[in-house]
């Protein structure tokens, strides 16, 4: 369906991942509404698609409690400015992409004013603080989820929802060219590779970096031929990891790569990593993985009481069974992590079974997310005419 309606579509994205989702969504919505105008907050990717950003997106990209508190007045000011703009020149729909602490409040105010609201990327309400579902139900006319188990949760609570799939599943090929990735990184194509990803933030690297390096050293004692590669998201993380490597009592040969984390995972035989989106990427690349994570004892005990799901790794959540080992808190020792990696490195039959399971999950998420999201939003818009 192509419509000549002169729509105004408001989109609010606060992080780089949301900017990418927003750009794809704008492309797909413009196919349906060539005369549409897109306005709100977005980054370079969205601006390149003709989006008008009222505020630079980086003003919303705040991580950590201390940083948020330090910027709280500015964030409230931005929210007030957006609402004032939307109320004076009402858009046909408001779409918040992720960043729920900021976007859901705006979506609710707009919905109360009669402006249809959509939220793209579900908060982890299915995992913890489940009572947030009642706030979400009052804030959105439609929730767009990346994973099918999220959609089932919203359906159970009578919140309008559409499962659209994950854009990464659309962009990552079904088969991974491991040899080409190794050649690109200058690695020996005939020796096994362990990709080590202790996280992208300084705090995570501080907690997990030495642990993962000690696990790698344990593994190297058992497999001297292993090549260790660590991708670092930026120069600061590279310096931080280099400092951790140099602080080890026994020298550990390791290759540091700035950026290119997906390429590093593609080159690997096994991935040792923290929980998070990286576990999804490793799954889509069909790589065996070992998930390790540690928090402060207080934080871990608190989260253990709040979290309502049996796993933290996305492959396990998607499969609703344990496909990859999760070694958390006291279970995350160098020996246990190293042994788990070694087992996956040497179990060829297990690797083949895992590849098959990961391929099935990849197919389930490969839904052409941009188009499905645009279609669901279009249905909402047409139902409100």
TrEMBL record:
EC number, UniProt record: 2.4.1.182
GO cellular component, as recorded: membrane
InterPro entries reported for this sequence: Glyco_trans_19
Keywords: Glycosyltransferase, Lipid A biosynthesis, Lipid biosynthesis, Lipid metabolism, Transferase
GO molecular function: lipid-A-disaccharide synthase activity; phospholipid binding
Pathway annotation: Bacterial outer membrane biogenesis; LPS lipid A biosynthesis
One GO BP: lipid A biosynthetic process
Pfam families: LpxB
Record's catalysed reaction(s): a lipid X + a UDP-2-N,3-O-bis[(3R)-3-hydroxyacyl]-alpha-D-glucosamine = a lipid A disaccharide + UDP + H(+)
Enzyme class: transferase
Highest taxon of the lineage: Bacteria
NCBIfam families named among the record's database cross-references: lpxB (TIGR00215)
Function: Condensation of UDP-2,3-diacylglucosamine and 2,3-diacylglucosamine-1-phosphate to form lipid A disaccharide, a precursor of lipid A, a phosphorylated glycolipid that anchors the lipopolysaccharide to the outer membrane of the cell.
Similarity comment: family membership: Belongs to the LpxB family.
Protein name: Lipid-A-disaccharide synthase
Source organism per UniProt: Marinobacter halophilus
Upper classification of the organism: Bacteria, Pseudomonadati, Pseudomonadota, Gammaproteobacteria, Pseudomonadales
